[in-house]
Amino acid sequence: MMTVSRWHCLLACLAIAIAATLEANDQVPGEPQSNPILIRGATIHRVDEATIPVGSVLFDAGKIVAVDVRIDPPAGCVVVDGTGKHVYPGLIESMTDLGLREILSVGETSDSNERGERNPNVRSWVAVNPDSELIPVARAGGIMIAHVSPGGPFLRGQTAVMQMDGWTVSDMNLLAPAGLGVNWESLQPRDKDAKEEAKKRDDKLQSLDDWLDEAKRYGEARTDGTIEIVSDVKLESLLPVLRRERPLFVEANHQSTIESAVAYAVGRDLSLVIYGGYDAVECADLLKRYEVPVIVAGTYRLPLHRHDAFDAAYTLPARLRKAGIRFAIAGEGLGYPGGSSNARNLPYHAANAVAYGLSRDDAVAAMTMSAADILGIGDRVGSVTAGKDATLIVCDGDILETETNVIDAFIQGRRVDLTSRHTMLFEKYKKKYSRQSR
């Protein structure tokens, strides 16, 4: 007979198991592709080339094999009828804390910020929660890839490009580190005492200079090997940036802040990407001269300056395109109240830009190919091209229209689950009200 203490132990174990189940989503990651798949008769939005109004795409072993008007299915191929459907590359959220933050008002569910101002060694990808409830919601909106960045007051840490499906962060990892996140906007003077603010800014930049110089000496000593060097994780994390192997992803919106960031990067010979970029058009010549791309921090933003037109944020992508500046469009990423929970709205930020002057093709590219190129993954994803990963979405309409639904999705050829807590609640309450109406 089981004793009382053993019953208590069993009940405790059951309670822990149930709690663990309730805290995680129940979507099972997709199985590796085992057969060729042919999507036939769909509108193929290739992005890097002209759209095929009625065409086919064949992929096998996680890679796109062929894209054409007509493709004969090979032996063992699974044929998907794409009549009336649209095929796009999987959308890319260019800057977010998706997987690092669950519920904004519950601090225990947030792992996006580290204490202190200088944390270049923080690795965002190791903290990503593969069981986040927000990942399936983002997938349902077409987001198959996300550039995940830690937050913080200045040197935020290392960013990573993550696929939105997998059992572990190792399965999800596409590129890590992708770069180093920096909040340059924290150098913008905010108080009335401009001299004091300028001094604080100069002191912080001098401190950063000294640290980069130290990292350079550290790297040279490690390469030389003539003296024994004690490993330093913070200095080690700066080396890919100093070697231009990875860029700085600098948050900057004001003209003075953008110009300061570019001047600093040029002076130190660092690769740079601007995130935010509200005043980027005012710095167009500078950004073009040094080939600095911009990740637009969403289009649903309030004007930054008192004298701005109400639609300044809405027209920013079109103005960047006209100025000849490379750009991508992000959704409600870092610093937004909704943050990662609204990553699913990325297509509507791009659609808003279309309503204010950007072409539809450029809007789609800003969420796919342009984003991939800026993040350093353009050789693998971002367009429907033979040889690239079969990371695709199938929609029942134009992805820029709110009525459109993503009805099928693949990440490296794996069919992913498009259900989420949203769809679960929809089905639940649909049943509830259908019964009440009888």
UniProtKB/TrEMBL annotation:
SUPFAM superfamilies: Composite domain of metallo-dependent hydrolases (SSF51338), Metallo-dependent hydrolases (SSF51556). The keyword Signal applies. Keywords: Signal. Residues 324-415 form the Amidohydrolase-related domain. Residues 1-24 form the signal peptide. It comes from the Bacteria. Gene3D superfamilies: Metal-dependent hydrolases, Urease, subunit C, domain 1. Pfam families: Amidohydro_1 (PF01979). One of its GO terms (molecular function) is hydrolase activity, acting on carbon-nitrogen (but not peptide) bonds. The keyword Transmembrane does not apply. This is Amidohydrolase-related domain-containing protein.
